[in-house]
Amino acid sequence: MEVYLNGQREKVNPGETVRELLSRKGLGNAKVVLVYNSRVLLEEEWGELLEDEAVIEVLSFVGGG
Amino acid sequence: MSFWQELQGYEGFDFDGFWRRTGPEDVRRVLAGENRQPLDFLTLLTPAAAGYLEEMAGLAQDITRRNFGNVILLYTPLYLANHCVNHCRYCSFNARQQIERRRLSMAEIREEAGAIAGLGFQDLLVLTGESRSVTPLSYLEEALDVLQGYFSAIGLEIYPLATEEYRRLLKAGADYLTIYQEVYNRKVYAYMHPRGPKRNYLFRLEAPERAAAAGMRGVTIGALLGLDDWRREAFFTGLHVAYLQRKFPQVEVGVSVPRVCPNAGGFIPPVSVNDPELTQIILAFRLFLPRAGISVSTRERPWLRNHLLRLGVTRISAASVTAVGGHARPENGTEQFKPADGRTVEEIKAAITACGYQPVYKDWHRLW
Amino acid sequence: MTREDRLEIGGKSLNSRLFVGTGKLPNQLLPGVIAAAGTEVVTVALRRVDFRSPQENPLSYIPENVIVMPNTSGARDAGEAVKIARLAQAAGCGNWVKIEVITDQKYLLPDNEETVKATEILVQEGFVVLPYIMPDLIIARQLEEAGAAAVMPLGAPIGSNRGLRSREFLRILVEEINLPVIIDAGIGKPSEAAAAMEMGADAVLVNTAIATAGDPALMAGAFAAAVKAGREGYLAGPGPSSLYAAASSPLTGFLREVSK
Fold first, then answer.
1. CATH of the domain at C128
2. Whole-angstrom distance, CA of residue C133 vs CA of residue C156
3. Pick from B14, B315, C15, C120: CA 20 to 30 A from residue A56's CA?
């Protein structure tokens, strides 16, 4: 099973949640914005199960003018 | 390369077309801008700009205060001699006038200097006619030597000299040079100066830069307003100032706005320059030449001078006597022109103060 | 100063007129820069996380009481700017947003028309919108009409440190627009920030000049002092903001008198 994560294909395990994926990618407690299939997922919704072929964008604040 | 080359660049320039084409929007653009260029200056001299005198005055006052502070320098002329070999049609001292010719002796110069310094003056403008035989360089050197003891700044308004001669007078104690081209229009110049060495237009035109090159601290130039179209004459005068400022950044370049005065010869000026026009010229000078000193002499009436004080003028003469030796002995001789402002120094100082300015007698002191 | 001089934007009353951008600035330096600048508004950007080298979030280095204003950099049209603004808000960034729509990649000049469209939408959604624009009076009026909280015209291209190249147009905005005018982009030196404030700008946003300084915190303090000096210079005098110097009484009225 695979998802698109920030434009790259990423293998995920069946039954894995959004939060688990982030944690595995080293963003366990970072403040990020997550867009799941064009919908903003609030942090309290990160327990949702990943779906096959989901498009996920993870954004974070960086320095900017 | 001298100012002559720059002046020639305007040969054939369509001034009349420029007056016609320039409208209020052009004037407003120039007023809103900074770092004004020659054609901006010319725009301020057009008939269209005459409708913007108040706006120009506001800016001019501002610029003057920023560059000079609220200060007006008082100076006075001293006529050493009225001998002259030139035939300037507009001048009371010209060679054809049947007037009493006088040259002050050193003792008389001392007497005059004492009387003038007694009034408080520290800035003196020394004048002679053009006569290398009666008032040669050696005479001027001697006079400067005497005068140095009385004044902190001495200007010369004399016939044009070579660079080396200016250097000699500088050494003798002169600080600045005043020399008017009288009229920049070469044809009119030839007409106004029918005989005498003054016929040499170029030698006179390049005198200010020779003086600057010799090391004079300042030069003041001007056109005698009334001899030719004042808009062009003022334009060329302003260009000349800008040229000198550019070429000699260390020299204080000033400008004067003398109007032709009624005089002993009964000369009728071909062009009249009325008060608003004179005002426009002064304002245009100030807006084009923010750091040039502007002088107004006692040729102008007290009423007008009081008002012009606030519009960009930085130097005015006072208690002027235009006859040779007239300070110590008022009954003496023919005047070059009849001063229109006959107020005493104290009256003029009071008027300056009433306008919100501080009258000062000196802005320069030579230490060595 | 004895008089109260605060900057009112989007319901907030600010003491500092220096906004600071955090681009090109290491997170560790942020607290020192913010403290030295005395700023109350800092900008941040939103980017895709790079999973190969995840970066620390600058928000954790910004004190609580400072307003964090995300920009919409990366947006190439109004729609993208709106999306980024919504995402930033979802990320817990409050409702301030600096609209930045850029299609020109060489000079990074803002697209004024798209910026107006994005402003109209985001104002409707309750954002406090501060659009970054080319200093254009007509556009600024449209933004005012649309309900922008301020306008942020540029002094020179972003990051160029070239100063107030657009000075004449900035001056026009300062004169004509009834919104705070915050000069953004191009200010390279404290003296330029002071000049902007003297001209009557309500605030300045500085990023590159601080971030690329040898000592960013020291430079931030210098900008704070410059902004204060410029502001006080503006308040102290009539200011050179009017086209013509206006004399208290006519200077040339005498010419209409009967001559004496």
1. 3.20.20.70
2. 11
3. C120
- The pLDDT score that the predictor gives to residue C2 is 45
Q: What is the pLDDT of residues C59-110, one digit of tens each?
A: 889 998 999 999 999 899 999 999 999 988 887 788 999 999 998 888 889 9
CA distance C95 to C149: 12
Under DSSP, is residue B125 helix (H, G, I), strand (E, B) or coil?
Answer: strand
Q: Which among C83, C98, C117, C228 is annotated as catalytic?
A: C98
Q: Is C28 on the interface with B (CB under 8 A)?
A: no
Q: How far apart are CA C67 and CA C95, in angstroms?
A: 10
ipTM of the predicted structure? 0.83
Say how far apart CA C200 and CA C19 lie, in whole Å.
Answer: 16
The set of chains that have 3 or more CB pairs under 8 A with A is C
- Residue C231 placed within a domain: yes
Spatial separation of the C-alpha atoms in residues B192 and B199, rounded to whole Å: 9
Radius of gyration of chain A (CA): 12
**Nearest CA distance, A38 vs chain C (angstrom):** 10
Burial classification of residue B199, based on how many CB atoms lie within 10 Å of its CB (0-12 exposed, 13-18 middle, 19 or more buried) = middle
The CATH code that applies to domain A2-60 is 3.10.20.30
In a domain, C1, yes or no: no
Segment B198-210 shows an average pLDDT of 98
CB contact (8 A) between residue B54 and residue C245: no
Dihedral (C-alpha) B99, B100, B101, B104: value to the nearest 10 degrees? -140
Question: Is residue C98, in this structure, part of any structural domain at all?
Answer: yes
Question: In total, how many domains does chain C have?
Answer: 1
Q: pTM of whole model > 0.80?
A: no
Mutate to test the interface with B, among C167, C249, C254, C260 (most CBs of B within 10 A): C254
Residues C216 and C33 sit within 8 Å (Cβ to Cβ): yes
**Between residues A10 and B107, which one has the greater pLDDT?**
B107
Are C247 and B61 in contact (CB < 8 Å)?
A: yes
Q: Do B311 and C246 touch (CB under 8 A)?
A: no
The highest-level CATH class for domain B3-360 is alpha beta
